[in-house]
Amino acid sequence: MDTYSSNYKIRLGLFVSAGLVLFIVAIFLIGRQRNLFNPVFKLITSFHNVSGLQVGNTVRFSGINVGTVDNIIIMNDTTIQVEMLLQEDVKRFIKTDCQAAIGSEGIVGDRLIIITQGSAEAKSIRDNQFLTSIEPTETDAILASISVTAENLQVISGQVAEIMFKINNGSGTLSRLIEDSTISENINQMIINLKKGSKGLEENMDAAKSNFLLKGYFKKKERKNEKSKEEETDNQKKENDQKKDKK
User: Under CATH, which number does the domain 39-136 receive?
Assistant: First the structure.
């Protein structure tokens, strides 16, 4: 009986000790998550729709978890106030022009608040200060948009398939252009004629320039073009000189 009692007491002591250790670890983890053991400060923001955000969700700044959502209050039918507790050591990095947005852990993870980075010129945030917010985009709206896009792609792919079917079966103007050798030869001959015509035009222009009756006209035109180029060069030099003087 004494042996049984001793083993029982030992097991009971181990069980109580293990339970106490687990309790302390749980308290530590919860306190660390909710910043119970670190100095914190409060920030306030508001949204029209918190999109599933809950008390205890993470607050993130520059990709780092810096606090938690402390309270969510319905102010009226269009405004929901969100209070956040943030670690004191990140206070100097959060500026007055930072904004609060609602994001998620991954695609379908828990909701969280993301604080955007502010400008270097802005002042640091103060305790209990209000941050402007960016309204979240609802997942349902995104899925609806994707559904519409998918339907449009389906219609377009059907139309493309129909066009390719007609081309392969010799229907339509495009198919005749591709498959009819006579049309292809006519197009090639047209291109050849255009090249010959442009070459003849160049020869006629050269002949006109060599004609003594038109030499004066072409020389006058060349001098005018040269004068325009000189004026452009002079203007460019003046602009460059002015830029150098300003520097």
Answer: 2.40.30
Could you tell me if 41 and 85 are in contact, meaning their C-beta atoms sit under 8 angstroms apart? Answer: yes
Q: How many CB atoms lie within 10 A of CB 99?
A: 14
Chain CA centroid to CA 17, Å: 53
Q: How far apart are CA 38 and CA 86, in angstroms?
A: 9
pLDDT per residue as tens digits for the range 152-204: 888 888 778 777 777 677 666 666 666 556 666 767 778 887 877 776 666 65
Tally Cβ neighbours within 10 Å of residue 155. Answer: 10
Domain coordinates in residue numbering, the chain = 8-37, 39-136
Percentage of the residues of the chain whose pLDDT score is greater than 90: 21
What is the dihedral angle through the alpha carbons of 41, 84, 95, 98, rounded to the nearest 10 degrees? 180
- Residue 107's pLDDT band (cuts 50, 70, 90): low
Per DSSP bridges, beta strands 111-115 and 40-47 are unpaired
Confidence of residue 69 (pLDDT cuts 50, 70, 90): very high
Q: Which residue, 105, 122, 126, is CA-closest to 63?
A: 105
Tokens of 199: 């070459």
